[in-house]
Prior knowledge:
Elements: H1 2-10, E1 15-18, H2 60-77, E2 84-87, H3 93-102, E3 108-110, H4 122-135, E4 143-145, H5 154-157, H6 160-172, E5 176-178, H7 200-203, H8 248-251, H9 258-271, H10 273-277, E6 279-283, E7 290-297, E8 300-307, E9 313-327, E10 337-345, E11 350-354
Parallel strand pairs: 1-2, 2-3, 4-5
Antiparallel strand pairs: 6-7, 7-8, 8-11, 9-10, 9-11
Amino acid sequence: MLGTLKFWMHHSVDGFRTDAIYHLIKDDQFRDDPPNPDYVEGRDDPYNKYLHTYSQGRPELLKETNAMCEVLGFHAEHSEDAPFMISEAYLGIPEMQKMYGACANNRHAPFNFNLMGMSWDAMRFKEFVDNFEMSLTPLDWPNYVLGNHDRPRIASHFGQQRARILAMMQLTLRGMPFIYNGEELGMENVTIPKNKIYDPWGRKGPYGFNFSRDPERTPMQWNGEKNAGFSDVEPWLPVHENHTRVNAELESKDEGSMLSLYRHLIHYREKSPALLTGSYRSLDVKNDHIFAYVRECEAEQLLVLLNFSDKDEVAAIDFGEGKAICNTYGDVESGAKKSVKNITLRPYEGHVFNF
């Protein structure tokens, strides 16, 4: 595996994703995982029938992860590239801390998948982000993942309006945002007929058809034409029937679309000192439905307000007059001045202000 890293770095690849890294090392005594005493047949995920004490997260994993980072570091010393590795592992904060600390040269971070399975609650999101930030050392670079090829589409799981709130949050928090292709359009899960399911988990795995991951793996919706512009022939999986209105071509022309929201935030982020290098500080705005925080550095101060409620909500705050960067409704002019004192947010509205 180290040789594989060297090979691809020699061919100018400088970013790597290690799949299922927590399962890399097995128990040196070949012990069986013990049964999970809390498991209930028919209710729980069959994977949780056992406590995976000996089949994942073994102590040797940290040493082997560091060995990979040493290869990345050696290449960085002898090249203009600065290779970095992200590892796939569904871990809580304590386990993520260990994986961050595994690499002495800080060329690695574990994926942070924790927000994907979180219930829709502003204070739960705030609490996790606060705790995650406090767990990091100054050299640890945070990251946030909201969707991937193994989990339902964000717009299907949370809804289109909530998906906009999450997009704004992900692109204004500190660190690396990882976006699964199609989320920037608001793509949704596709209902796949049983005879067209190809995912092994859905066809013949222990989970049955209800656990197929194909619904979130359907073709990218480029335009409103046949097969969503993905191919000239019938694709591996069917496209969503909404591809005539949810597609890149159409949304690129609509300033109020999901794609325009992503583009606006990404383009602003590229030149924003506060978003690129600034600190994170959450705020208490006396409303449990609003997740509020400040991103700031010497050159810039930004305020982010996210209303998780389906009703109008007031943020008890007084920042004076700020410049609007964007909002999730897409109906606020960028650069417009607005008083940010006891501001009322519409249902599922998010705002970014510059002060």
